[in-house]
Description:
The complex is a heterodimer. Chain A is mostly helical. Chain A is built from 13 helices and 1 strand; from the N terminus they run αβαααααααααααα. Chain A has helices at 7-12, 40-45, 47-64, 70-90, 102-129, 131-134, 143-169, 181-205, 209-223, 238-242, 245-258, 264-288, 292-295, and one strand spanning 28-32. In chain A, helix 5 (102-129) crosses helix 11 (245-258). Helix content of chain B is 23%, strand content 32%. Chain B has 8 helices and 21 strands. Chain B has a 6-stranded mixed beta sheet, with helices on both faces. In chain B, strands 12, 15, 16, 19, 20 and 21 form a 6-stranded mixed beta sheet that branches. Chain B has a 4-stranded antiparallel beta sheet with strand order 10-11-13-18, with no helix packed on it.
Amino acid sequence: MSVARSPASAAGGDQRPADPASEAPPPAVVIDARAGGDSLAELWDHRELLYFLVWRDVKLRYKQTALGALWAILQPLMMTAVFYVLFGRLAALEQRVPGVPYAVYALAGLLPWTFFSNAVAASSASLVGGAQLITKVYFPRLVIPLAAVGAALVDLVVAVPVLLVLLLASGRMPPPTAVLTPLAVVGLALAASGVGLALSALTVRYRDFRHVVPFMLQVWLFLTPVIYPVTLVPARWRLLIYLNPVAGLVDAFRSALLGTPLEPSGVALSLAVSLVLLAAAVLYFRRVERDFADVV
Amino acid sequence: MTYTAVQVSGLSKQYRIGATGPAYRTFREAIVERARGALRRPLSAPIAPSIWALRDVSFAVEAGEVVGVIGRNGAGKSTLLKVLSRITRPTEGRVEVRGRVASLLEVGTGFHSELTGRENVFLNAAILGMKRAEIVRKFDDIVAFAEVAPFVDTPVKHYSSGMYLRLAFAVAAHLDPHVLLLDEVLAVGDAAFQKKCLGKMGEVARSGRTVLFVSHNLAAVRALCKQCVYLETGRVRAVGPTEEVLDLYARSGAMRAAVRWTREGEAAVASGPRITGVELVGLTQPLVRVDQPLRVAVDYVLDAPGPAIPGLHFLNSDGTILFSSADWSLDALAAGAHRGVCEVPPFLLPAGAITVEPYLYDSSRPGTNELARDWVRDALTFEVEDSAWVEATRRRWLRPWPGMVRPKLPWSRPA
Lengths: 296, 415
């Protein structure tokens, strides 16, 4: 070991001739004061960790609760019951819903919404909740909020069969478009990741967001055509509705499974907004992620 | 194959310390600050109090070297490892690290008490950077090393703290990086386990891996490391062969000889249960004779009522804990400042330099591997003096008396 040379000479003076018979030195990683995060290749390198964290979240949730996986289904089912009485019956939305019973229609909207809402809530809180990890181990921080989205996704997958059973019970077959449902789910996951990543990074910095997020999600539900059809909104406002990334994607999910009418331009707009949001969130996240350990 | 595995050049790390303690801000504060900044920037930039945890640190480690990092509490050792392991970013300077890095700043990171031993091994190993296939391959070795095979499918909340630590260390010991960064992980567990860890570390050290080893345990540093970096208040004080550096460390008053130590600076304004000082009661200089009783006082503060048990480690100059004592009579305490006094009887401490480390134990969380809510390393050091004229314990023996403790035991001659 030696006391180091100055940074200037260290940069250029490190290429000593390698012994051809020996193993080449492994490539160097440079750590410096720049703020940017790690390359996305590194995130790919840690995909197994992402898988393990999702697996941990799911496992723990089902281990610590008596009803386990049932919760994934009960939450949207109970909300459906409430909205069925409130809107289907009292507000007589039943007649405005095209082609399917209101309960099925509402559940087909509430499932993707519950996924989005749980994913955003969990990933927003994930970095602060994972402070113990962040201050002790290095890995791309993106893994933590993404794992929270992944765990919510598992719940959605568990709950979808219930919707199918309900649909069959009402005497209908799922249309052939049902095979496209995974595409809508991918879109929703992108939207949830974008919102979740941004909020998780903001929560590290400003703890206020812990109070903002639940409230925001509540309002968001009613701004999204989940429990009511988008046709209730006057036509000239409709594009505005689809600026909300969840709106078009929930519509797409429901339409794929139930064959309800769909506005393709709306879906495209929502998807585009989701992608822009995700890109912006990733940029912001990577700009601040190297300081999480000092702040969290 | 010789190359520089770790090249640290002009590395500095600055921490902003708010007078309010937590580093995060509320949104309102941030907005107010921005607004103020925009209005007054030309006049007075707000000067946030800050400290340099590392200042212009440079050194290099050749591949295959095992290097000890020593220094007092607050010298920047842990910050250095955090920067090297990319947990936090430096303020200035740069580091080049060649090869796969694994850092071990804590044993059992990510362990969850509800999960079984098997599940925790997979999770923890993945967090530390192992691939799934690698974990599968090493799983049996890990469990065998930890000696927990019969309980591998039991949730770790039912483990004894010894089993928990063994399992956690076993995972870490099976990491296979080019560069290993280790912080104090040997300071856990009972003596037998520490010995096993030390043995494993020695194995790692001889296997040609590059290791940076931060420790207060000078005996361990001496046993494992040929080279040492000695940090003092964030700067490199010395770099070189272990014996020379440890010598300098011992001579440079790094052992803080004093009768009183009080916490100052950043940590003094922190929140949470904390130690505020430690004192040798009634002494005017840091010197006691082996035949004198000694009273050591621990001062600590609780912000809220709660369980907290003050204790003291007594260490010799190698950093070995000779014994530890805590006030187990306490249950829950009121908020505010408290003092606990520990009486050390005569004829217990051996001659030589003794270091006192006060800690606060959280009795509400038994079984976790976090022994202490607060633990001040190297708080103060005093000298225990022995001589042939002290009591009639070793009348005509003028050379140093061996032994980790210095008891005076009764002898008799049965007729």
